[in-house]
Each structure stands twice: as C-alpha cells, then as structure tokens.
UniProtKB/TrEMBL annotation:
<keyword id="KW-0547">Nucleotide-binding</keyword>
<dbReference type="GO" id="GO:0006223">
    <property type="term" value="P:uracil salvage"/>
</dbReference>
<keyword id="KW-0342">GTP-binding</keyword>
<dbReference type="GO" id="GO:0044206">
    <property type="term" value="P:UMP salvage"/>
</dbReference>
<dbReference type="GO" id="GO:0004845">
    <property type="term" value="F:uracil phosphoribosyltransferase activity"/>
</dbReference>
<protein>
    <recommendedName>
        <fullName>Uracil phosphoribosyltransferase</fullName>
        <ecNumber>2.4.2.9</ecNumber>
    </recommendedName>
</protein>
<keyword id="KW-0021">Allosteric enzyme</keyword>
<keyword id="KW-0328">Glycosyltransferase</keyword>
<dbReference type="Pfam" id="PF14681">
    <property type="entry name" value="UPRTase"/>
</dbReference>
<dbReference type="InterPro" id="IPR000836">
    <property type="entry name" value="PRTase_dom"/>
</dbReference>
<keyword id="KW-0808">Transferase</keyword>
<comment type="similarity">
    <text>Belongs to the UPRTase family.</text>
</comment>
<dbReference type="InterPro" id="IPR005765">
    <property type="entry name" value="UPRT"/>
</dbReference>
<dbReference type="InterPro" id="IPR050054">
    <property type="entry name" value="UPRTase/APRTase"/>
</dbReference>
<dbReference type="InterPro" id="IPR029057">
    <property type="entry name" value="PRTase-like"/>
</dbReference>
<comment type="function">
    <text>Catalyzes the conversion of uracil and 5-phospho-alpha-D-ribose 1-diphosphate (PRPP) to UMP and diphosphate.</text>
</comment>
<comment type="pathway">
    <text>Pyrimidine metabolism; UMP biosynthesis via salvage pathway; UMP from uracil: step 1/1.</text>
</comment>
Length: 205
C-alpha cells in the first residue's frame, strides 16, 4: 500500500532537495525535514493508551504512546540521512543497519553489512531515500523478515513506479511511505526527474 505525502511543506522541501544548486549543508537540513514529515506520517497508526494526568487546572485523561518499541533501519549509506528525526521524536527507538551496495554496472544490490536489534514484536521502519529499481529495498525487507520483523514498513523520499511495483511483487501488502512518486528510471537506473545521487548530495562526494 503506497502512501504519498500530501502537504505544502513536503512539496516545498522536496523541490529544494531536487534543485541541483542546493548545497550539501542545506540538503542535509532538507533531508531531515522531509524525513521528519515522513516519520510522522508512517507512525500515524501507532497504538496509544489512556493516561490520567493533572493539568494546572484539573485532572484529565490524556493519551500517550503505548509501549511499542520502534526500530529504524537505514539502508547504508544514504538511509543514514533519514534516521535522526525518528530518534528525535520517539521516546523508545533503536537503530539497526543494513549495508547494501548497488553495482553501478548491473544495478544489482550486494549485501556487505547487517547489524540489527531484536525485531520480533517491534514496529520496524526501513529507511532508504531513493526507491529506484526496488532491488535493495526488497532485499532489505527480506533480511528484516528473516530477522523476525512481521510487517516492516518502508519509508523513502522519492520512489519510481518500477520500485513500488518491485516491492509489491516481492513483498505484497508492504506499507510504503514516500514524499514523491516520480515518472520513471533512466537507462542508468536513476529516478527521473529525481534529485540525483542522494548519498553523494548528502555527503558532498
Ligand atoms: N539512488 C539515488 O541516489 N538516486 C537515484 O535516482 C536512484 C538511486
């Protein structure tokens, strides 16, 4: 199931992310902002429970997050640029890492690193800014499931129709959250119009 952010601030931020004149420092700030909006959207249905508190004026029943630890798993390296908002807004979150490298000639993902906290019973978010061919994300979803995740969610900034279809083919029913669904992939498997190489733009490489 695909969820595309629909918010004026998201449109504003994604446009500046796409702009090739945006410098790495600004790009990192914008990546934080769009990831924060995505984190809020992707956690819309987290369980809450009643909590009796007292305001300075009277007692009331408020609602707080039910105990449901979150796990955020960036796909290295570009996914690192999406982690901080999850750490900043959620009280109980741990971080795992999956390292997948795209072979530039074949565009096939190769795993070179995997370190995960317990996933079973936890709400798991895989974060990967660019859902291009979908190969890395599909592989990361498989790894997460092999390690106990029941319904890992995928959070991306820009997706291609090919990438979304690939996830739906290999992992039907996956909740996918994106800020933009773009037109297509080019011959080198970059997203069009896209924003270029996210990792390079994030780290100035
Ligand atoms: N990875 C990127 O960083 N950009 C793309 O367009 C596709 C994959």
């Amino acid at each position: 199931m695909l969820h595309v952010l629909d918010h004026p601030l998201a449109a504003h931020v994604i446009t500046h992310l796409r702009d090739k004149t945006t410098k790495p420092a600004t790009f990192r700030t914008l990546a934080y902002q769009i990831s924060l909006l995505l984190a809020i959207e992707a956690t819309r249905n987290l369980a809450v429970e009643d909590k009796l508190i007292e305001t300075p004026l009277e007692p009331m029943h408020g609602r707080v997050l039910a105990h449901s630890p979150l796990v955020v798993v960036p796909i290295l390296r570009a996914g690192l640029g999406m982690v901080q908002p999850f750490l900043d807004i959620f009280p109980d979150v741990s971080v795992g890492y999956i390292g997948l490298e795209r072979d530039h000639a074949t565009a096939v993902a190769r795993s070179y690193y995997c370190k995960l906290p317990p996933l079973a019973g936890n709400t798991v978010f895989l974060v990967d800014p660019m859902l291009a061919t979908g190969g890395s994300a599909a592989q990361a979803l498989t790894v997460a499931k092999e390690n106990g995740a029941t319904a890992p969610r995928l959070v991306c900034i820009v997706a291609s129709p090919t990438g979304v279809a690939e996830i739906e083919r290999h992992h039907p029913g996956t909740e996918i959250y994106v800020a933009a669904l773009d037109r297509e992939l080019n011959a080198r498997k970059y997203i069009l119009p896209g924003l270029g190489d996210f990792g390079d733009r994030l780290y100035g490489t």
